Amino acid sequence: MRPFLTTGGTADPFLPHLLEAIRGADQIDLAVAFIKSSGLAMIYQALDDAIEIRGARLRVLTSDYLHVTDPQALRRLMLLAERGADVRVFQAERESFHLKAYICTKTSAGETVWGAAFVGSSNLSRTALTDGLEWNLRVAPTDDADSSDSRRFREIRDQYEALLAHPQVQALDYPWIERYEARRRLVQYLPVAAGCEEPEEPPPEPSEVQREALAALAETRDKGFRRGLVVMATGLGKTYLAAFDSQRMGAARVLFVAHREEILMQAEASFQRVHPGARVGHYTGARKQTDVDLLFASVQTLGQAQHLERFAPDHFDYVVIDEFHHAAAPTYRRLLQHLRPRFLLGLTATPERTDQSDILSLCDDNRVYSRYLFDGIELGLLCPFRYFGIFDETVDYREIPWRNGRFDPQALENKLATQGRARHALRYWREQGRERTLGFCVSRSHADFMADRFQREGIRAAAVYRGSSLARSEALERLEQGRLQVIFSVDLFNEGVDLPAIDTVLMLRPTESKVLFLQQLGRGLRLHPEKEHLVVLDFIGNHQGFLNKPQALFDVGSSYRQLAEFGRRARDGQLKLPPGCFANYDLAIIDFLIRLQGKGPATDYQALRDSLNRRPTLAEFYRSGSSMQGLRKQHGHWWALVADQDDLTPDEAACLDRHAGFFREVETTSMTKCFKAVLLESMLDLDGFRQPPTVEALAAQALEVFRRRRRFIDDIHKDLRQVDAVDERKWLTYWKGNPINAWTGGNRKDDAKHWFEVAEGRFRPTFPVDDGERATFQAMVQELVDYRLAAYEPRLAKPTDAVTATAEEPKEGAQILDFPQPAAANAIESPEGTELPYFPDLRIACGHFRTGSTEVEETYRVPPGHGRVDPGRHFVARARGNSMNGGRNPVCDGDYLLLELVDPTKAGSITGNVMAIERQDATGDDQYLLRIITKQPDGRYVLKAANPDYPDFDANEEMRPLARLLASWSEDG
Taking every annotated instance into account, which residue ranges of this chain make up the domain Helicase ATP-binding (predicted)? Predict the structure, then answer.
């Protein structure tokens, strides 16, 4: 029999009684005179679960009586109001309000089937809920509706309803909180009850990693960038980082956009703690608020034109885009074409650059800061792990239908929920598992099956999911207290819930998403005083659907070749791990990885598609390190490869039939500068294939692109590089004479087709784009433009100092050569050598200056014996000519050259070295020359040839040192 009276203190605290009632109710009514942040925090998760998971009705009534209630608590209640709670306040004025009543009811078909009402002395404070001596009477109805207990319970509920109608009760809103906060500062409230003096929760402080990221973000804005991507592993606080950065930037209005409601709700709480005085609002299918400081919006809703039009382009100072799936990319792009914040921050936890491709494109290819899971462990911010990749020997995944990048759900469940597989999991858990385990299952019935199987073995296990008999918050409490050993879950613990006590993660399902895998792993990586390391038991099957797991954990590239190489390193014990970590894969998994074969663009495409569980984009294909030259040799162009793989939609196939020539031109057109791609980006931004823009509008939009993509500014003539204050007339003339002229055929001497024309002052295509195909056409062109800008981004950037100025000492403030190499980020170190960026069209001349292209087309495996090479500083090009064919180390025509970019902070003296020198010709095209740098007695620098048949050159201010030659070799080795 339940006690009628709870007496508080350590022997009988009120909190467990209250939580039990909340977790069993579908109607929760609270009337509490004082609410402190400390007390609300103790029941907040249970209230949130009640609304979000069980769909319960929550009503809260508090007061301003004696000004004891925390403003911070009121603001947190507003988050519950965002989720559907009815939150009201009693304005005490001259009347006291000293109620403490908690009413919980469970109904069925409109009838009360269970209830509990507590009336007594406990306010919502930590002291009153835990160790304070507080008396609370419990009133519960019985089966007899006429019993005294049932009548009392109805009376309490009736009086609550009457109280809500009191004239001094009003709905809580942000303006009321702000007025209350202002007058509360002017009064000295009295400690009238236990817990009244408990302080508000202090605001969070940035961690070491967050401080580094904040500095990098401030620096990128100082350089003029308006967008940037931060890569930060789960558990390192990327959402808090966004909140801190928006605060430090002084953003008055912030927009946080995501594609899942759970992400938005988690972000709300983090931002509110950092921006305690801000008004928080939602813009989703159910709720659409606009007059707030922090707006949390679903991209599915806000991305629609009729909703975007409610906001002026400059309405938001700061926009955050959290991790998103590829299908939402066009919607995000539409949103960003409309909004023009002072800064846009993209966030992702995915380490592999191919997966970052879409969000990186939206952030102008400006990767500002990266910290991965292994970094977090090395810095002591996450706990070490012991990972066991266990072969799922009882399941042949090849027998399960695989559709649209995932297993058939019902067939998968039938294969996983078997006695044999449960025994297999149980054996490994007994051998390696620890005290508190979280198991991830594929479905509710799978979770129920596993919980039942473990319970039969005497293990304290439970299944927890939406609608389960055990609530999420209660399950976590039991696990923390040792009353549970294992929780089998479906989707409830992927993110947004802090589980520091978890010491074992049991992965019993395939995960289609690398982000999801990392989130599940991250549930157990939080630090806890009783946890030395996390045990990860990951069951891996014989199917490509599992390849994303090593890719996510070890940042392995997407190609089968890279995965096979990873398998060999795992076999040979050569995996690089943080201190205190351990990883072991069953031999069957290693053999499966090593047997992965495939060379060529089609196989690379298939591997990437398997990794992403969808059709890859061209930028993703490029960033995976696949050969663009091989693609064009075998298929002609990108969309032809996609067509060969039967991955075009009917609309795309029809569009390709009509516009194949233009698509090929966009993908392969010669670009010694970024201008052609920037013009197309501007055209798409202006929806120019629907309504051709004026030449003036197109030039102005191009200027906006350069203001965002600051790394491209060096392509502009030096007189116009001050893009924030450029003379618009001069800019228009310049833009007409460069890409507009090029796209309209003005620089072509032959009769080749030109794709655009200027007619009546507007820049328009010379080919028709029908209304019905326009959306598909523009999406296909955008994909090609994203690739061209991504491929151009890592071009060999020009330092600002001439040879004559930097031969011995770099000038103060000299630009560090920018060489972020997406294509080589997944460089594989092996006994066969290391992969470096390869510029097949660079053509380092060994004769006279020669024009070359610096787009990364592929990678090249440098043979061993050249010391430690770094894909961020070293690259490979080919020699052209014989001016260096002499001396002790001759360089012959066609030789491969291993070159190291000159970094002004590390260059030292270049005198006497063989250097690649860069200059621009009269048309602005880049040219390159290989020579020995010599300094003459009179101070002049001379570029000497090794072959006496070739002339020397005097260095001048137009020439810049690009890279130092380290080695050369012929094609046959």
Answer: 219-369
Would you state the pLDDT for residue 355? 67
Split at pLDDT 50, 70, 90, the class of 349 is: confident
For residue 483, give its domain range: 385-594
Q: Is the pLDDT of residue 905 over 80?
A: no
Alpha-carbon distance of 528 to 521, in angstroms, equals 15
Q: Are 968 and 877 in contact, with CB atoms under 8 Å apart?
A: no
Domain boundary among 371, 406, 436: 371
Residue 60 backbone phi and psi in degrees, to 5: -130, 130
Q: Where are the beta strands (DSSP E) in 872-921?
A: 874-880, 896-901, 914-920
How far apart CA 132 and CA 195 sit, in angstroms, is 8
**Is residue 794 scored above 50 in pLDDT?**
no
412-421 in b/e form (b: 16+ CB < 10 A) is: bbebbbeeeb
Average pLDDT of the residues in 46-63? 93
Same domain for 788 and 812: no
Measure CA 74 to chain center: 31
For 308-323, how does the pLDDT look when each residue is reduced to its tens digit (9 = 90+)?
999 999 999 999 999 8
CA 19 distance to own-chain centroid = 35
Residue 779 is which amino acid? A
Q: What is the Cα–Cα distance from 675 to 672, expressed in whole angstroms?
A: 9
SS3 string, 673-719, reads CCHHHHHHHHHHHCCCCCCCCEHHHHHHHHHHHHHHCHHHHHHCCHH
Tokens 């990860």 correspond to: 536
Do you know the residue count of the chain? Answer: 973
List Cβ neighbours of 429 (8 Å cut-off, separation of 6 or more): 437, 486, 504, 506, 537
Strands 318-321, 280-283: pairing kind? unpaired
162 contact partners, CB below 8 Å, separation of at least 6: none
Domain assignment present for 57: yes
Q: Are residues 109 and 143 in the same domain?
A: yes
